[in-house]
């Protein structure tokens, strides 16, 4: 026994150690290898240049510029004069101290950003001075350079990824930039390309020793894809100018292709505001502006009652369902009595009217009767409602449409089930009669309205609206955007309705915004709406809506314009639509009187009503809001949005 | 004279020694804190110095083997006294390196007397115990042996170098071979178990466990009254034993929490898993395990052994040299190294057992015990099984004093063994 003690213990210990080695070098070796790599392999990323964005005519909209980050490696700073550095960086001493503390907590050996994204002008004076502060240095990076001062919301912006993004997509690392909204977000993968990297082994001081595995695991970057989008830069710029001091949106679509020619939401802002030192401040101002909501893309996310433009859909459904003919005349007695003492009012016009004039005069009585017949054609109101719903949704209303931008709303087109669950008792067509004139339960987004117009222009089909045209100069080849989506209405039924829409310009509600030599078909809308003011639901001045396409026989543009509280269809929306159609088709403006009107009239006084404590009237017929002082012209309203907040 | 005339040097031991020394040299080369490797004989680098030390050791070996075999036994006492004086002298002439006064400066080199105290103590213990009238059963003799062993340890602890002092417990194996009861080891193990338990379990639980265990033993021993080998089950003995255990537990708990310094406490805490601290004191062990794991099955070529190249394991060419073997040679290298150590110790035990003379056998067991304890504590630490204790891995860790000390330790025994046929009292 005494001869064996040491012998046995050596054996036991030796075998235990070998077991431990198997555990470390085989069983958990892979995990330890990862840790070893984290320890010692320094990855230096090689960022490719982000793709440029061109408009449909090859005009550059978004390019890149070099920006400069002020970096710190806490371990290397030593003692320095905090006050002096704060002065140099134009930063609060306490804020700088906080930043440095955060950097130290994150890593003492690795670099952290102290001030991100300085522009060339901001960087130049720093360059020399900063050398006196060891541990601080400036890192170049590529940022966006906007060639336009409009279209911010559709172009979108890029920002440093947050932890959430890093967690969900392991492509990104701390400090990477990624699209945060608009086209930048939608086509992030294409625009960014693929970053490459070079790996170096480093020693425990962080010094690079040599290329890792002789560079065999290095990855060359893949350049970002240049995008050509369907937008027309000039049209976009002009449209945004016309939206001065107004809220709302514009969508213009090329009916033959579904390409989005223009997409405007107002108020908008200069995309360059999201660059440079004040970018965080500006982003916050935009995000926190709960009054103007510049962050909301009104044409994609705003759900409004469509108003009268929706009447043309009811006319088409009436024809398709055979409940009326283009020739049938409907009586209007300053409105339509639809049961009991209920009446849908109408304005004063000749009566009775057939379809074409009915559309031109926008007669409520006409469409109430057609709509009632459609619903009552069903065995039950619910079935009639379902038939109606199917026709309406075939125009791309009531769903997300599938366009290539990252935000949207489905809107709402009610069906039989909607009312059955809403009303406990039996319901009839008159209950839902507001749908006849695009009020009531119907809600659409402006882009849906524009797409509906394109479908009418095409006499029964549309292409899914899209913003992408070419990638690296190659036309896109996505069946989603090249396949016709047919409506449930036969092509032959469109002509009488289109005649009516043409009549709107010739003799109807839009006759004052006619354009010489262009046959336009359109429909005005004046939309009742309500808002909560000081907690009370109150009717507001009507929205001004207009849809149009032109030329009548060979449509090149379909457009929807929506102006919040713009009084009535022809006052703002129809003027804007006419000008944009002329600009797109002729390339020049002959109706400068319309242009002058739009540029010299503000609706700010109308929007301010809701914020004030004074009681106010709506739909005041007197022409108000004339801009007398040039300074009041605010294309980019960001600046005073902060003031507005204080007002509130 | 006769057969015993020609010395028979144990080739196996010498081969294992040579293998370990050169694996060590290669590992020191890999782990050298340099940006550019130079020739292995570059005297400005640690590997060049180690190469030089190996050369010195070759000379030492020749001298050791050339000296008359009787010398070691005859001069054991003197060697011991000189060695103890050199340890004591450190407190006057020593040079402080890394907070410990363990070295004498000699030109550009340093000399660490504690590395030489091991063979001196082994010689002294062997010499004393091999005297005819000395017996471990005699309390006075036992106390003297204990004193011989404890003296160097007590001189080394305050340097401070608790790791090197710890090594002297290795003489237990030699004493056990000469008849010291295993009970002493059991006592040691019980003491260690209670110490560790006091750190991780609530003190009241431990007291409860002690009482229950003692009660069970008492009841078992009552049933075996016929067994005369066990002490008579006197109840008061058990009560006293219980109280001693409890008092010991309470005092260790007190010592740990109030007397030990933070750094010692931390090391124990980390191994016990009481704290996770990969950046602080646990950094060394964690980095060491990463380097070892990175080696995988077969190791990595030097340029891919990133942990070793990047100097991530502190003290890698000295105490943590085993981790360099782990990364550069993988499981293959580490297993071979472990097996070489096992075979070396087996070989020394076998050699000790074949000695006719008690002096050589005791010395042999002393050597085996010292190698084992170094191997156990060092590798155990490097692979994360034991607390960080700063002692070198024999033959492999960088350091002239260590390498020479271990070489002398081993080759004196090889010399004694070579003359086993002719060498007698
Ligand atoms: Zn009417």
Summarize the structure.
Chain A is of the alpha+beta class. Chain A is 36% helix and 20% strand. Chain B is globular.
What can you see in these coordinates?
The complex is a heterodimer of chains A (648) and B (425). With 648 residues, chain A is an alpha+beta fold. Helices cover 36% and strands 20% of the residues of chain A. Chain A has two domains: 43-229, Penicillin-binding protein 2a (Domain 2), CATH 3.90.1310; 233-610, 3-Layer(aba) Sandwich (Beta-lactamase), CATH 3.40.710. In chain A, strands 2, 3, 4, 5, 10, 16 and 17 form a seven-stranded mixed β-sheet that branches. A five-stranded antiparallel β-sheet of chain A has the order 12-11-21-20-19. Chain A has a three-stranded antiparallel β-sheet with strand order 1-8-9. Chain B is mainly alpha-helical. Chain B folds into two domains: 3-188 and 264-418, no CATH class; 201-260, no CATH class. Chain B has helices at 11-31, 46-66, 70-74, 76-93, 113-129, 139-156, 162-166, 171-177, 182-200, 203-223, 235-259, 262-271, 283-295, 306-309, 321-353, 358-382, 400-418, and strands at 95-97, 100-106, 109-111. A three-stranded antiparallel β-sheet of chain B has the order 1-2-3, with helices on one face. Chain B is globular. The site of zinc ion (ZN) has 6 residues of chain A, from helix 15.
